[in-house]
């Protein structure tokens, strides 16, 4: 079966530095793949190349066999490649519900007009509330976004990504900067998305122990190159990975 997402020789140079270097990767639909690798390995740059924020120096990205070379990041989102929002894309003075409602609206490409589209407006609100339930933010629905804790902001980012309803979710370190108490809730949110079974998920995570039992497969980036790609067990048992990465860095 055609992989849903594939890269061929994907590479980008910043000056003389190859941040992503000839990466060939593919994944089937509804698969959960994690990307690990030490600081500066090229993980976020790899995401930026897939989502279209950066243009490759060489190589290409394919969605269901079709080249994305000429597609902007907005077009890629429309085609089904969703990248988690950074909190900077969230309207800080709007409530959590209002933010998610706007993301639902943007997916539906409708203009807000409460009188002419009252029914549609109710549908959008219902969908936004359902998403907030999924990301465990129902009790914060009416709170202004900039008053959320760090962990809650990350849940909101995931909620806004879900609102766009893309087939593929690119999640860049959703637990970054979180306090230890906040981590289980975000992992629960991710697990529940996986268990619904309708998304293809690519997740960058630093902390190996967090993703072992979530992932169908794990790929390891090192100095911009793809060092290994396999089941969690294969990656744990891989000697090159152990030497390059697991020898201390993964649990730092
Ligand atoms: N826009 C840019 N201009 C120049 N160099 C860049 C740019 N973006 C990334 N780099 C460099 O590319 C390399 C890969 O960075 P990247 O952020 O992708 O790594 P990472 O694996 O995501 O690291 P981390 O785990 O720390 O987030 C680094 O050496 C970084 O300094």
From TrEMBL:
InterPro entries: AAA+_ATPase, ABC_AA/LPS_Transport, ABC_transporter-like_ATP-bd, ABC_transporter-like_CS, BCA_ABC_TP_C, P-loop_NTPase. The keyword ATP-binding applies. Residues 5-248 form the ABC transporter domain. SUPFAM superfamilies: P-loop containing nucleoside triphosphate hydrolases. This is ABC transporter ATP-binding protein. Keywords: ATP-binding, Nucleotide-binding, Transport. GO terms for molecular function: ATP binding. Pfam families: ABC_tran (PF00005), BCA_ABC_TP_C (PF12399). It comes from the Bacteria. Gene3D superfamilies: P-loop containing nucleotide triphosphate hydrolases. The keyword Cytoplasm does not apply.
């Amino acid at each position: 079966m055609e992989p849903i997402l594939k890269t061929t020789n994907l590479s980008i140079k910043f000056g003389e530095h190859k941040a992503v270097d000839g990466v060939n990767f593919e994944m089937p639909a509804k698969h959960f793949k994690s990307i690990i690798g030490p600081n500066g390995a090229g993980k976020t740059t790899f995401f930026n190349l897939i989502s279209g924020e950066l243009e490759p120096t060489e190589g290409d990205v394919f969605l269901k066999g079709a080249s994305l070379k000429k597609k902007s990041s907005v077009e890629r989102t429309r085609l089904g490649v969703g990248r988690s929002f950074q909190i900077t894309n969230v309207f800080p003075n709007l409530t959590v519900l209002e933010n998610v409602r706007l993301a639902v609206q943007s997916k539906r490409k409708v203009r807000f007009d409460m009188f002419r589209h009252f029914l549609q407006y109710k549908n959008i609100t219902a969908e936004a509330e359902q998403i907030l339930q999924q990301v465990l933010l129902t009790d914060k629905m009416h709170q202004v976004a900039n008053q959320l804790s760090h962990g809650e902001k990350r849940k909101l980012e995931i909620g806004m990504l879900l609102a766009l309803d893309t087939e593929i979710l690119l999640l860049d370190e959703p637990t970054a900067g979180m306090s230890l108490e906040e981590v289980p809730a975000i992992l629960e949110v991710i697990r529940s998305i996986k268990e619904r079974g309708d998304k293809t998920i690519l997740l960058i995570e630093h902390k190996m122990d967090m993703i072992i039992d979530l992932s169908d497969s794990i790929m390891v980036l090192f100095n911009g190159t793809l060092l290994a790609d396999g089941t969690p067990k294969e990656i744990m048992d891989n000697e090159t990975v152990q030497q390059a990465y697991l020898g201390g860095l993964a649990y730092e």
